[in-house]
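Figure 3 (text version): structure tokens given as input.
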């Protein structure tokens, strides 16, 4: 059973391993309607809040349990927390990870001392395989979210936020399986019940959001999102109960909105967040919650983004925020057309970075073409101005 005493005990135990991460005011560029703060768990040891719950859980094992080793499953962040905690405690650890987990997270888990076993599929498939191994070996299973002591460890973040910002009005938290928000919400609502707690999932993996709306646990057929840390098809039984009782609302954001949030954090705050860590910021950026005039904390839960997809995330973020756009323009294939288009774009301050002619489209005249032109822009308002000027000059956007 999760209790406030257990969360305080977890905070005491974690003093030797976990950082009390900074809570910083967010610079302009994310939200103009709120007083926004960022709780930077991306700067936690192992790059994620997951260390808290994993270490506290392992610290409470008996000597007999420790002697048999531990097994865990994870998309990457819980894996690293378990590996570090087990190695520090001199315990053998096996971690099952989905084969789609970022290579950087897999290698980091190995470096921290765990035996990593990759499983075909997503987190839930790795969970099923880990349960099978646990039955075969008798090792202790360290659940990533549906466990009292893991939840208590995550709840220490709530204590820290209340200590760092006593007059906070609302806290926005990512949700995967629900361990983080369960512990945080329990701690905060126990001490300051008037503080609003909001959860955020992606539209491609809204398992908890759908479960709360339906009033029972819903298992998704798939969990498709680049925010791999919260790609969970089925939430936990315990976390569902706690969230149903202590969380005020759950909203969803698209992957493109998450990409825009990652870009905004990098540009305006100099903060690197992974997809799962940025969903809270995306919810505030795109006005998913009633937060106007409030003092709000966004929990940036992790920073272990796969560098192999970072450039793609930045590109999608630029497009989503109106900083990059591609037009298709139907042209009569004659001299001066490109010059005319370029003049209109430059007059509005757009910067052309790529141009391509396509004469092969079958739904255009033989003596015409489609000009595909990519440009850097300031925002969506500037894009609209360029569109209007091109159409006013007689060009057709396709």
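Below: residues designed for each position.
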């Amino acid at each position: 059973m999760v209790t406030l005493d257990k969360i305080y005990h977890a905070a005491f135990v974690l003093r030797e391993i976990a950082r009390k991460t900074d809570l910083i005011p967010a610079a302009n560029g994310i939200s103009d309607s709120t007083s926004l703060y960022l709780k930077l768990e991306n700067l936690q040891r192992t790059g994620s809040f997951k260390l808290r719950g994993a270490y506290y859980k392992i610290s409470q094992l008996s000597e007999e349990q420790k002697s048999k080793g531990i097994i865990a499953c994870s998309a990457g962040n819980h894996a690293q927390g378990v590996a570090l905690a087990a190695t520090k405690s001199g315990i053998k650890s096996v971690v099952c990870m989905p084969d789609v987990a970022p290579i950087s997270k897999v290698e980091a888990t190995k470096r921290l001392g765990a035996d990593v076993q990759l499983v075909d599929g997503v987190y839930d498939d790795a969970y099923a395989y880990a349960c099978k191994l646990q039955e075969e070996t008798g090792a202790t299973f360290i659940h990533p979210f549906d466990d009292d002591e893991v939840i208590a460890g995550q709840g220490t973040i709530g204590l820290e936020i209340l200590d760092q910002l006593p007059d906070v009005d609302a806290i926005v938290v990512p949700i995967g399986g629900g361990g983080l928000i369960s512990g945080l919400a329990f701690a905060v609502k126990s001490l300051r019940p008037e503080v609003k707690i909001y959860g955020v999932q992606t539209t491609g993996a809204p398992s908890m959001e759908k479960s709360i709306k339906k009033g029972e646990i819903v298992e998704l057929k798939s969990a498709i999102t680049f925010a791999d840390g919260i790609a969970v098809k089925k939430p936990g039984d315990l976390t569902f109960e706690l969230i149903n009782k202590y969380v005020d609302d759950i909203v969803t954001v698209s992957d493109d909105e998450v990409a825009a949030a990652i870009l905004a954090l990098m540009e305006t705050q100099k903060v690197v967040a992974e997809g799962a860590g940025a969903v809270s910021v995306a919810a505030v950026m795109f006005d998913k919650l009633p937060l106007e005039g409030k003092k709000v904390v966004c929990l940036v839960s992790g920073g272990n983004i796969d560098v192999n997809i970072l450039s793609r995330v930045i590109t999608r973020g630029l497009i989503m925020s109106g900083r990059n756009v591609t037009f298709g323009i139907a042209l009569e294939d004659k001299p001066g057309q490109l010059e005319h288009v370029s003049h209109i774009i430059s007059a509005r301050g757009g910067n052309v970075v790529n141009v391509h002619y396509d004469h092969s489209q079958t739904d255009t005249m033989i003596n015409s073409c489609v000009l595909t032109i990519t440009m850097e822009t300031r925002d969506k308002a500037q894009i609209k101005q360029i569109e209007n000027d091109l159409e006013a000059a007689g060009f057709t956007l396709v």
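The first strand starts at residue 23 and ends at 25.
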